[in-house]
Specification:
This protein is mainly alpha-helical. It has nine helices and no strands. 74% of the residues lie in helices and 0% in strands.
Length: 283
């Protein structure tokens, strides 16, 4: 109990002195995670769509060759950025540019390089999620769209992608939560986020564990809040749980369901026996 009381006392002391610093670090973390996730989704959707464009045997060789090259580049990109840690990606991008240009070029803004790293890392994961989401939509949806005259672009934007978006929505939320935590590796290039604030404060106060407890609670609060908001968004996208059936359809009469032998449109069904009887009566 004494150690627990001391822990709470140290946490209260740190919070009273450095609360604004912690909030500033968490604000940078959230902003970086949101921007990186959104840009990563854009990259993932582009890569996922390019991987699912159908190629027929009678298509032009130019189309086949171009798609083949693009898909090869996308595959290399996905494998490299999914197979290496984000920390090393940040090091390679931030320090690699001046290394290969003999210090002639370098990133002057840490926000730019941090957003770039998080975005391309997220895009590599989202590309496979989008590809799987598109393939999960029943093939009959695309065939039905083509049957009513839609081209591939119209089919994707109006039929396939809205359904695929709902299917991959949990993965988008999962990537955002991962980015909230993984942006902590950006301290390696000097970016000031939540974890780097923790390192700076512990370097000045030597209270490593109390500061780590504050960090843990901060990350947990943000991720739990994000999870609840994303669940609510998913439910909203699902719509209502039950729908009322339409009891009357004004188009039924013109569809030939009812029989109007004496009047109606030329599309109404006609009872041939009744029509013959009517003609005999007129005679």
């Amino acid at each position: 109990m004494d150690r627990l009381s001391q822990l709470f006392g140290d946490i209260a002391s740190l919070w009273s002195k450095s609360a604004s610093t912690y909030f500033a670090g968490m604000g940078n973390t959230l902003l970086l995670a949101v921007i990186g996730t959104l840009l990563g989704c854009v990259i993932g959707f582009v890569c996922g769509i390019l991987q699912t464009i159908p190629v027929a045997k009678n298509d032009r060789a130019v189309k086949k060759g171009l798609l083949g090259i693009l898909r090869a580049i996308i595959r290399v990109y996905i494998e490299v950025f999914r197979g290496t840690p984000m920390m090393l990606q940040a090091v390679f991008i931030y320090f690699g540019l001046p290394y290969f240009t003999n210090n002639a070029m370098r990133f002057r803004n840490l926000w730019v390089v941090s957003i770039l790293v998080v975005s391309i890392n997220t895009g590599a994961y989202m590309a496979e999620s989008v590809r799987g989401g598109i393939l999960s939509v029943d093939r009959g949806q695309a065939e039905g769209a083509k049957a009513i005259g839609m081209n591939h672009f119209q089919t994707m934007t109006s039929v396939i992608l809205p359904q695929a978006l709902r299917n991959i929505m949990p993965q988008i939320g999962n990537n955002f939560i991962i980015n909230v935590k993984d942006t902590s590796v950006m301290f390696i290039i000097g970016f000031t986020e939540f974890f780097s604030v923790h390192k700076a404060i512990t370097g000045a106060t030597y209270k490593y564990f109390p500061s780590a407890a504050i960090e843990m609670l901060g990350y947990l609060t943000v991720t739990l809040t994000a999870s609840l908001l994303l669940r609510a968004m998913e439910k909203r996208m699902d719509g209502k749980g039950s729908y009322e059936l339409v009891k009357g359809d004004p188009l039924i009469s013109t569809a030939g369901t009812y029989n109007y032998p004496d009047k109606g449109s030329p599309y109404d069904e006609q009872n041939r026996e009744h029509a013959c009887e009517t003609e005999e009566e007129r005679r």
